[in-house]
Amino acid sequence: QPTAEGGYAPIDTGLCFSSVSMAAGAEVMNDIIAALEAQHIPIDAYYPELGHGQHELPIRHTPVLRAADNQIWVRETIRNVARQHGLLASLAPKPLPEQAGNGCHIHWSVWDVGSETNLLYDPNERYNLSQLGYHFVAGVLEHLPGLLALTAPSFNSYRRLQPHFWSSAYTAWGPDNREAAVRIASGLWGREPVSFNLELKASDPSNNPYLALGGMIAAGLDGLDRQLDPGEPVLIDPGNYSDAEREARDIKRYPTTQTEALDALEQDQVLIEALGPDLSRAYLAVKRSEYAAFAAEDLDFEIKHHLHKF
Asked: pTM surpassing 0.85?
């Protein structure tokens, strides 16, 4: 909300899941939810999150292209309904440096269209993850350094992707491990076959959802084609391993800047071929220009411009 000094302050300073925070945001959130439902975008849940003034709206899963469309409509709806209430809704990855960042985690499953079967689920495998699922996860992890340039593409994204912040910072996977890049999400009790899914945490609202989802699919399919192995699952925060332990498990730190992720993308032939020559060339050029512009400025400039841009 606007302050007397001409800046902005969070609408609440409550705790995660706080009823106080929910009450503070009730008017604008009710209108946002109503606007989304009027566009046939159902909401699965609503709750205040960890950061001050941070509220989360998980939307219903749907086929991938519609999911990308919905992501655009959700962003526009949130921003414009907030504006009608005299508020600024920012979806920047790290709008407040001292607070929790904004993620846009990707939950996905892979289905056989003919039989309507969830191909990720196999009750006879460890953690109920099918062999197809293991290969898909391995492909995502293999290409994650370059994929980040599509899923977490802004200069500000890399302030969020830090160890110990539930945003993930290492190329690891595991069951219900919220510090892993890829989490095996527990299925709903009694509905495991249809609700079983995977979550990519290294994704934020500054991305183009069509490129982010397309890149993730290309990475996963490469894992299937090459029958890649994701290695052993990680059951703890990978940031708590020593450097030697991470090296032994082939767990790598993410790129820590936008330009490092762009370098990785440029060297990733699978992702570059998926983008195509014209789009990949234009994307890299625009993003490198963006990096140069923000790298030449200070933190205040970065926060101000990402706060309003996203």
From this structure: yes
Q: Rounded mean pLDDT of 33-41?
A: 98
For 40: left if phi > 0, alpha if psi spans -120 to 50, otherwise beta; the answer is: left
Length of the chain: 310
Q: How far apart are CA 169 and CA 148, in angstroms?
A: 11
In the chain, the DSSP E strands lie at 47-48, 55-56, 106-108, 111-112, 117-118, 173-175, 182-185, 197-200
Instruction: Give me the residues paired with residue 182 across strands.
Output: 173, 200
Burial level of 192, CB count in 10 A (0-12/13-18/19+)? middle
Yes or no: is domain 100-309 CATH 3.30.590.10? Answer: yes
pLDDT tens-place string over residues 110-151: 999 888 899 999 999 999 999 999 999 999 999 999 999 999
Distance, CA of 163 to CA of 284 (rounded, Å): 27
Residue 166 confidence (pLDDT): 87
In the chain, domain spans: 1-89, 100-309
Mean pLDDT of the chain: 96
